[in-house]
Amino acid sequence: MATWRTPIHRELNRRLRDAVGEKTAVQFAKLGLHTVGDVIRHTPRRYLAGTQMSDFASLRVGEEVAVVAKVQSTRIRQGARQRVESLITDGSGYLTVTLFAPKPFHATWWSSMLEPGSRGIFIGKVGVFNNSLQLTHPDFVMIDGQGQVTAKKDHVKQSMQRAVQRATLVGLYPATAKLPTWVIAETIALLLPSIRSLGDTLPPWVVDQAGVLSLPEALTEVHEPVDVTRAEQGRDRLLFDEAFGMQLAMAQRRRTLDGLEATPRPRTPGRLLSEFDNRLPFELTQGQVAVGETIFDELARPRPMHRLLQGEVGSGKTIVALRAMLTVVDSGGQAVLLAPTEVLAKQHYATITGLLGDLGDGQRLGAHEHATSVTLLTGSLPAAAKRQALNEITTGDAGIVIGTHALLSDPVEFFELGLVVIDEQHRFGVEQRAALAAKSAQQPHTLVMTATPIPRSVAMTVFGDLEVSELRERPAKRAAVTTVFVDTFNNPHWVERAWQRIREEVAKGRQAFIVCPAISAKQTEGDVDPATDMTAVTELLPRLASGPLADLRLGMAHGKQSVAERDEAMADFASGRIDVLVATTVIEVGVDVPNASVMVVMDADRFGITQLHQLRGRIGRGEHEGLCLLLAAPGEGQEDAQLRIRALVLSDDGFELAERDLELRKEGDVLGAAQSGGSSLKLLRVLEDADLIRATKDLADRVLADRRALNDPLLADLMTQAELVAAGEWLEKG
Q: Which of 111, 159, 294, 726 is the most buried (most CB within 10 A)?
C-alpha cells in the first residue's frame, strides 16, 4: 500500500466508498472510477448551453441523449394510461416527448409546463414510435432565454435542477442508466470543495513551466463551467497531469538505469559470432545489419543496454537477438531468452539450435572449438531434466538459456548473466524484468522484442525507459500472402469454397491452419470476449472430419489441452504428419511451418487488427504464396468490425495496421489486453495527444534535472502514482 507525503495526493487516492458510501461507489465502479481522484478527473463529454438549441440530426436510436429544444405543441391523450405528448424542435427537425401520467393531475401539471414556445433540457433514450423519433418519459427542466430554470418535472430531479443552476453551461458526463449525469455532477459538487482547498498536485514552478492552469482552477472550469474555452483549458490541465506523471516516472527510471553499471560485452573477432555469420545461408537485411550494429555498440558500453526491438511479422528479429546473444557468450557471459509460453519457448529452442548446428553442441565430443550449449527450462520438464538444466545454468555450461516463467523462480542461479532477451513484451511486466536482472551480480543488458508493431506514440508512452529500434524490411525469400474477406452473411455458400481451397492446397503437398475464437461453446482463448454463436475448435473439427475435409489428416491445438498434448499436435503439424491444424490463437506467435500456405479464420470479426495480422503471419513463411481467408458475418451496428477486416485486406504493413488499430479503438484501452473498454489512461489518447506526450517527456527531463525536484514531496507522490498505475496496468502491456 502506497504511503503519501502530501494531503492532496492522499485525498485523491482515497477509496471512493470511504467518501460517498458503498452504494454510490458500486455504481461509479461500473464506470471504472474507484477513488476520489478518479471521480474528480471524470470530465463531461460535452457541455450544453441553455441559450443554444441542439441539433437533432445527430440523434441515434438507442443512445442516451440530452437536448435543448423548443416546445412546438403539447396535448393530453386519453387511453389505458393517460399521457402527455409534446412535439419539440431544434428549429428544423422534430422529436416526440411522451410522458405517462400516474394520476390525472400529473398530466395537467406537465402540460402546463410544456407550453408551446417554451424551452427545456430533455434527457432520455432515443426510441422510435410510428416511424418517428421519440423520448419516452425523459427527465427535463424548463429554462428561460438566459438558461435559468423556470420549472422542472418533479422533485426527484433536484440534482438536475441544481446542475443547471450551478453554472452557465451544463456538463454531460459519461454515465450509466443507474448513475445518470446529474448524480455524477452532484457527487463531484460534494467532493470538489475539499479537494480545491488542498491546493495543487504540482509545485508552482512546474505549473509555471508547463503553462497550465492550477489544479483548483482547472477543476472549477471543468465542473462549474461558464465558458467552453475555459472548460477546455481546465481539461487540458487534467490531460497534462496524466501525460506528465507518466513521463516523470519514465524519466526517473531512465536516470536510475543510467546510474547502473554493466559489464561491457564487445565483439570478439574470430569466435562464435564470426563463425555463425560466416555460415549463414542467406544475407541479412539492411535493417538487421543496422539494428545489429546499434546493439553491438550498446553492449560494448559499461552502462546497461535497454532497447525495444519491434519488427514486422517475419522480419527476422530472432536472428538479430541471437547475434546479440552470441556476442555476450563470446565475452564469457550468459544470455537468456524469456518466452511467454512453453510453445513459444520450445519453438525458439528448435529455431536457435537449428540455426547454430554444431555451434550449439557445447562441450560435446566433436563440437566446434567455440561452441556453446543451449539449454531449455520450462515448468513441464521432468525432474531429472530440470535438475540437469539448472546445473548447466549454474555452472555456466549453458551459454544460451531459453525458457518461460520458470526462469524467474528462486532455484535458478546464473553463472554470469550478461543479456536478457524478452520476447513478446506485452506478456511480461516490469517486475518480471527486474526479477531476472536481480539474478545477476551486475545489471545485465536487456533487449525486449515484440512482433506486434507499436505506434511510436504508444512506444514513447509505454516503453519510455527503452530505446526503440524497428525492423520493417522482410527477408527477400518471404512469399506474398493474399487476404480475402469472405462475407458469410450475404454469401453463406462461400464457406464451402473455403474448405475446397484447403483441399486444393493439401493436394499440392501443403498444409493449412483453421483458426477459431472459441475452444468450446463456453470457453474462449486469450483476449477474445465470450459471445454466442462463436465457432469452437472442439465442435468444428468433428464436423470437418466427417464432412468437407473427411479424408485429410486433422489435428487440434488450444490452450486448455495439456502441454504434452498440445506440443504433440504442434510437432505433428510441423513435421507434416497433420495436413490441417484446427486451433485457437495459441498459434498466434512463434509457430514456424514454412509449408503452411493457407489459413481460414472463423468469425474474423471477433479479433482485433493486430491479432489478425499476427495470425496471418503464420503462413507464407516459405517459398509458397499464402492465402488468408477471413470468414465473418458482421451485421448492422458492426461497422468497426467491417473496417478492421477491410484494413487487413488492403494492407500487409504491420506498422500501418497498428496505427489504424489505434484509430479504431478510440476510447478503449489502447494498451490493455481487452482492446476495448476502460483504461487507466482516463483522458490521454496516445494517437491524438502525441505532441503533448513529447512535450511532457522533455519537461520531465528538465524538471528532474532541477535541484528543486530533489526532495519535493508533490513530485515524489506524483511518481508514486504513476508507478502504481504501471504496476497495475498499462505500463506492463504492449
A: 726
